[in-house]
C-alpha cells in the first residue's frame, strides 16, 4: 500500500503530539471517513449522502427478525444502491446478528449464521459492479475467523461467476479490532486482512468493564489514557509494518481531546459519525483516494 493519502511517515519519533485546542478539527493530514447507519426497515429512503464525500462507511441497523427474513440479499442490495455512485467508495460493515446468551459474538456469530452472511456477501459483491466497495467484518476473536470468512467470500464469488454476474474479484477485506487482545495480535490479523478499523468504543468498554455512562468512566479514561494510546500505537504500527491501512473510529476518534493524539500515532483515517464528519469536513481531504493495497 502506498501511504500517499495521509502521512508520509509510518512511525513518528515522538509518540504523542500536543493536544489540539478543544473543538479544533483534525489537521490537514487526516482522511475523514463519515459513518452512516442505515435501516432495513421500510420504506427504503435514500440516505443523506453528500457528493463531496468520496469515502463512506455504512452500517446497518437490523430488526430483531432480520435473520429469519427471506429475500435478505435483495433487501441489502436495494438499500445500498441508494448510496452507490461511480465516484464513491463505500466501506460496508457486515451486520452481525445480535449476541445471544451462550452463542459467539462478532465475526464468530456471523460465521454461524451462514445463510445470512452469504446473503450480505452476495449483495455487497453485486454492488461492487456499480461503485468501489470494501468489505469490513465485525469484531474478530481469532485470526482463523478471517480465513473462514475468506472462504465464504470465495464461495459467494463462485456462485456469482456461475450466474454470469459482474463483481470486483479484487475486493478489499477489512476487520474490526476492539479488544485489547486483538489489538496486541493485530500483526496476525493483518496476514488475512487488507485493512483494519479499531473500534475504541468496544476497546474502552472491555478495558474498563464499564459503559461510557458509568459514573467513574471519565476518571478511568483520564487515568489510563496513556496505556490506551500505547495499545492503539501498537496496533497501528503492526498494521503499517505489514503494509496495511489502519483507521480508528468510536469515542476517541471524534473526541477533540484525543483526535490529535490518534493522528500522531500515524492513524491513516478517523471514522466519524455523519454529523461530526460534516462539522470537521475539509473538501480537500475528501478528494483523496484511500488505498488498502500494497
Give a brief description:
38% of the residues lie in helices and 16% in strands. The chain is built from twelve helices and eight strands.
Explain what the structure shows:
It is a single chain. By secondary structure, the chain is α/β, with parallel strands linked by helices. It has 12 helices and 8 strands. It has helices at residues 72-81, 106-112, 114-127, 143-162, 180-184, 186-189, 200-208, 217-223, 225-241, 256-264, 274-279, 283-286, and strands spanning 31-39, 55-61, 89-93, 132-137, 172-177, 195-199, 245-249, 269-273. Strands 1-2-3-4-5-6-7-8 form an 8-stranded parallel β-barrel, surrounded by 4 helices. Helix 3 (114-127) crosses helix 4 (143-162). It is globular and about 55 Å long. The chain starts with 30 loop residues before the first strand and ends in an 8-residue tail after the last helix.
What key phrases describe this protein's structure?
disordered N terminus; 294 residues; 16% strand; alpha/beta; 8 strands; 38% helix; eight-stranded parallel β-barrel
C-alpha geometry: globular
Strand order of the largest sheet: 1-2-3-4-5-6-7-8
Return Rg in Å.
Answer: 18 Å
Largest sheet: 8 strands, parallel, barrel
Helix proportion of residues, in percent? 25-40%
Number of helices: 12
Terminus-to-terminus distance: 3 Å
The SSE order reads: EEHEHHEHEHHEHHHEHEHH
Report the uncertain regions.
1-28, 276-289
What is the typical, i.e. mean, pLDDT? Answer: 76
What percentage of amino acids are in beta strands? 15-25%
Number of strands: 8
What class, by secondary structure content?
A: alpha/beta
